[in-house]
Design goal:
The protein is of the alpha/beta class. It is about 25% helix and about 20% strand. The protein is built from ten helices and 15 strands. The strands form two sheets. Strands 1, 2, 3, 4, 5, 6, 7, 8, 9, 10 and 11 form an eleven-stranded mixed β-sheet that branches. Strand 12 and strand 13 form a beta hairpin. Helix 1 runs parallel beside helix 5 and helix 5 runs parallel beside helix 6. The longest helix is centred in the middle third of the chain and has 22 residues.
Length: about 475
């Protein structure tokens, strides 16, 4: 088995045609965004987990910046990914819905062509672009307009949606918290560009194969700037780890999966060092939303935070945020100011010499000075949507909840009048409501919310359409 990674890398390198020379460090920086799926705030060693071993991410945090208040723009997959790539709350693009919440494998909707992605802004500046991993912004076998290549990516290798969305008939894996899985129970297709290369995808190999494909892309493009967007399939349920990692973590299978992700990060960072690209590359590691806590040991941990995936409590939307890049990010920083995955759109577009669109509202802010340790975060507020409804808002240190709902199992949201109010700096667990003592702060937050709502134009949801007819051949 030890020779398989070399074999995968050799095949991928042959496909990409890697060249021997390296990119000059004087040009625009390379951008790599590594996104875990359903990884919790408390699931990494550098965020306090006692038994999941993540030495590569821990080193990445020491050599770069670790954010303690880093946010997704949504509490589930599809809208959070749309927000990352566009720098916009998903309410602006229609990539949210109160009932459906995420795109299913038979959905007709997807990221609108009118949206401008980070891949598109950087491609205009001469960047090569790749999406390697889980897409989940439209089923392109149903509508070709939803393929990553229609949104600025030159190359795609991965799954079109979550790994649990195409179960085979009779699949016995539906019980919450079920750890033992068989890859044969699932029928997810693995694509290279528009061609299905494996179905069902062997999910035990996905993390390794994404890594090898990413390394080949980096080698191919080491002489010019590139954007690599690597949204991993895991630790979304069902959980799968390769034979090299299965049964190795004290945390069990979930720990095995996360430790393999950490190994992937280490291989990618080492590739940058080996190629001399480490001095001119920004690498980001984060998660699309919080952990799927209702799945017990099959789900992750939000640490000291309340709630998890599917909720607008902190555990649903505050995620790990590690940014690394010598010359771009000052080393050994712990940044305690708020930032968001949406900010990557603005920050990376500007780093690459591109222009932030002026014909639409962009919610991402520029973090360049903050990353260099030269200024405060320009993010003054954070809005917490669940579907199309605004559940909560944070302004400065305080967060107000207008509605609350558990991620799963609570049938309807609970309204709060007056809103619940928590001080995020002293009570990140949201355990002590201080609304009665701070009516002035509630009024200030309410004013920010009203200004935001006045600037949001109604957009039809893209998540409602589904088909039952056979899917056309891709």
């Amino acid at each position: 088995m030890a020779c398989l990674p070399i074999l995968y890398l050799s095949i991928a390198c042959a496909l990409f045609g890697a060249e021997p020379s390296t990119q000059s460090a004087k040009g625009p920086p390379n951008i790599i965004i590594l996104l875990a799926d359903d990884l919790g705030y408390g699931d990494l060693g550098c965020y306090g987990h006692p038994t999941i071993r993540t030495p590569n991410l821990d080193r990445m945090a020491r050599e770069g910046a670790r954010f303690t208040e880093f946010y997704s723009a949504a509490e589930v997959c599809t809208p959070s990914r749309a927000a990352l790539l566009t720098g916009r709350y998903p309410i602006r693009s229609g990539m949210c819905h109160n009932r459906f919440r995420v795109l299913r494998n038979n959905a007709t909707g997807g990221l609108p062509q009118s949206e401008i992605t980070l891949a598109e802004t950087l491609k205009k500046q001469g960047y090569s672009t790749a999406c390697i991993g889980k897409w989940h912004l439209g089923v392109f076998s149903i509508n070709p307009d939803h393929h990553p290549e229609r949104h600025g990516f030159d190359h795609f290798f991965g799954l079109p949606h979550s790994n649990d969305m195409d179960p085979k008939p009779g699949n016995p894996a539906g019980a919450p918290g079920k750890l033992e899985q068989d890859p044969a129970w699932w029928n997810s297709p693995l694509y290279r560009n528009r061609e299905v290369v494996e179905r069902p995808a062997d999910q035990t190999t996905l993390t390794r194969r994404y890594t090898e494909e990413s390394i080949a892309f980096i080698q191919k493009n080491k002489n010019k700037p590139f954007l690599l967007y690597l949204p991993h399939t895991f630790p979304h349920i069902p959980l799968f780890a390769s034979k090299d990692f299965r049964g190795k973590s004290p945390r069990g299978l979930y720990g095995d999966v996360v430790e393999e992700l950490d190994h992937s990060v280490g291989r990618i960072l080492q590739t940058l060092r080996d190629l001399g690209l480490d001095q001119n590359t920004l690498v980001v590691f984060s998660s699309d939303n919080g952990p799927w806590t209702s799945h017990n040991l099959a789900g992750g941990s939000a640490g000291l935070l309340r709630g998890g995936k599917g909720s607008t409590w902190e555990g649903g939307m505050r995620v790990p945020g590690i940014l690394w890049g010598p010359g771009i990010v000052r080393a050994n920083q712990v940044i305690t100011e708020p930032a968001s995955l949406m900010d990557l759109f603005t920050t990376c577009t500007l780093l690459g010499g591109g222009e932030v669109p002026k014909d639409r509202e962009i919610d991402g802010v520029d973090l360049r000075s903050l990353l260099k340790g030269e200024g405060a975060s320009p993010r003054g507020d954070m809005l917490y949507y669940r579907g199309q409804q605004l559940f909560a808002a944070r302004v400065g240190d305080f967060k107000a909840h207008f509605l609350t709902q558990a991620g799963y199992g609570e049938p309807k949201p609970v309204a709060h009048d007056p809103p619940l109010l928590f001080n995020m700096k002293v009570d990140p667990s949201e355990s002590t409501n201080v609304a009665q003592a701070h009516p002035d702060i509630l009024a200030k937050i309410q004013a920010v919310v009203e200004r935001h709502r006045a600037g949001v134009k109604p957009v039809e949801s893209q998540l409602t359409g589904q088909v039952t007819a056979p899917k056309p051949k891709p």
